[in-house]
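Sharing in case it's useful to others searching the archive later.

Someone asked me privately for the predicted structure of MET7A protein, so I'm posting the question and my answer publicly. Question first, with the sequence:
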Amino acid sequence: EATASALLLRAGLALLAWPVYLLSFLGIWEPFCRKVFFPFFLEKISGAHDKKSKKYKQELFRNLPDFRGPSGELRLLEIGTGSGSNFQFYPAGCRVTCSDINPNFQEGLSRNMKKNQHLHYEQFLVAAGEDLRQVPSGSVDAVVCTLVLCSVHSVSSTLREVLRVLRPGGAFYFLEHVAAEHSSWTYFWQQVCYPTWKLVFAGCCLTRELWKNLEEAKFSELKIQHISVAIPWMPIAPHIVGYGVK
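And my answer, the predicted structure tokens:
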């Protein structure tokens, strides 16, 4: 739990961000955040994050072709596609279904689709990770999820849906920021920033220990690596990257 000094600093941060808390109280912040602020911010931050995480993503997605279905095609579902910064890493001819709970990323998304014409784009679903009912069970070879599990309402329900839509032998790929080591300064600052960060950044939680959820999910094989993707002034350096096989 947060220490007294963390709670004090947390209150100070909330004071600094009082206009956002007020707008939230009035019901104005959430729709503005979803439509305008978050897509704009995410595009800016994902530029920096993509540069830092590029080598990890190249390594992560290298074995995607191994999971092609019996037909020789690779059917891929991306949860929380955002503006499509992962498209560049997918193999040619891959059939991509995009899904996001927030439909306001169109601009960046169509830009990245134009840039990555080596892929077949099947459809765009407005859906939460916890509810992929539009995707039939066992119908995809791979599911990809990067920087999304921090803000889903339920990590375990999302992973249940991932396992449902994957065919047996299919793979779930992830790269997510997670809670820091509890004795570290990073974790202290994650505790300080937590409530304000969650409000400002559309429900993003800083202190999730997502490796535990992944270990509890029923993957037959799971590869997890703890890495650091440091972005200046952001308490999100600790990440996990890897994949699980159904």
